[in-house]
Amino acid sequence: MIVCLPRRVNRIFAILVAAIVLSYPGCGVAPVTAQTVSPLAVEAQSLPDVLEKVTPAVVNIAVTSQAPDETNPLFNDPYFRRFFDMPQMPQQRPRMSAGSGVIVDAAKGYVLTNHHVVEGAGEIAVTLKDRRRFTAELVGSDKATDIAVLKIEANNLTALPLGDADALRVGDGVVAIGNPFGLGQTVTSGIVSALDRSGINVEGYEDFIQTDASINPGNSGGALVTTDGRLVGINTAIIAPAGGNVGIGFAVPIDMASAVMRQIIEHGEVRRGRIGVSIQDLTPDLADALGVKDAYGAVVGSVEENSPAAKAGLQAGDVIIAVDGRAISGSADLRNRVGLAAVGSEVEIAWLRDGERHSAGMRVEAEPGGTAAAANARPDRLAGATFQDASGNVFVEAVEPNSPAALAGIRPGDVVAAVNRQPVKSVSDLRRALSEARGTVALDLFRGGGRLLLVIR
User: Fold this and answer.
1) SS3 content of the chain, % helix, strand, coil (to 5)
2) Chain mean pLDDT for the chain
3) Is 220 assigned a catalytic role?
4) What is the pTM of this model?
């Protein structure tokens, strides 16, 4: 006889059987224990833990400088000022600005920041995360790379360990730390959007890391850090059509910033290097014409006589592909590697000629015309003009006929107010600006009571 149990009794019976089977040794499935998933192990590598260690190395920088009072634009005209017998120098008033910086040497108190953060500074104050405040000494700065080095006298500092910017790949996670809008220390995260960016500042040495981590005004000089807490860049610029972050920020790679820092600490300035070649990018068409398979490198256009390149055997048409065993992407990359190499040091240059690889050591020479001169600087482009200081600007006293200055369009009586939008207040300022300028130069002039923009190529 078959007896059917009620459905409720069946369920109870099934549960009792399952409990007996699972409790019997060697049967069933082992229960999940804390050893299977370890929240503590994950937490030890979390971003908050990393940031807790690195954020004390990022500082706020307050800069006090002097700025002239705003006046009617007519007051800038030296003829107007002279006619009304106005004071030669406008009234000055204090101006405050803020940026960020990174401690890279805790023992010696060295802080990296941007040149534009401390340019024209009268006093520089550094505030740590623990709110200690110190007056900083400007060790030196370099406009071409937008890097400056400060020094503070303090104990118990935290320095950021340096990473390897060359090891970065597009898509790597990064964190930007700084002082946006003067709010205080702020952290934003993103990824590496691109590498080897250039063309942002045509007057400088460029090899930017691009990131979508939010970088806003005040972040300049702050840290770009990998997710494991290593410094790979110094935040320096953004593309901001509306005045704020749009997800396109740039950082100077730490290897470039470190090279600049070493020279500033040792010499007080950056001594640019050269090997005596003119170069251009290797385009696909040039690569095909020269029989080069990989379209990367820099094509030698000319070689100066008795230069390190000439002595090593380089010739026009050679394709430079590596410096010290590291491949170069193009002419800008080669310019960065050689320009930031210590003067007097030796670099190993590899090049291709007729499909064969050659290499040789070359001793880096100093740039002619001073350390601030660029490879294609032309300080003689206004040769033939006689200048004198006048009312905080530069007066053109005379111009020789058929001279470079005359052919460029300079006329006696002109007053030079700025070079490439940078104000010049003396003849020495003018010559320095011309020696630093590369390529096209734009002069702001006053002529006949009107303002004129003169472009010199």
Assistant:
1) 25, 35, 40
2) 77
3) yes
4) 0.62
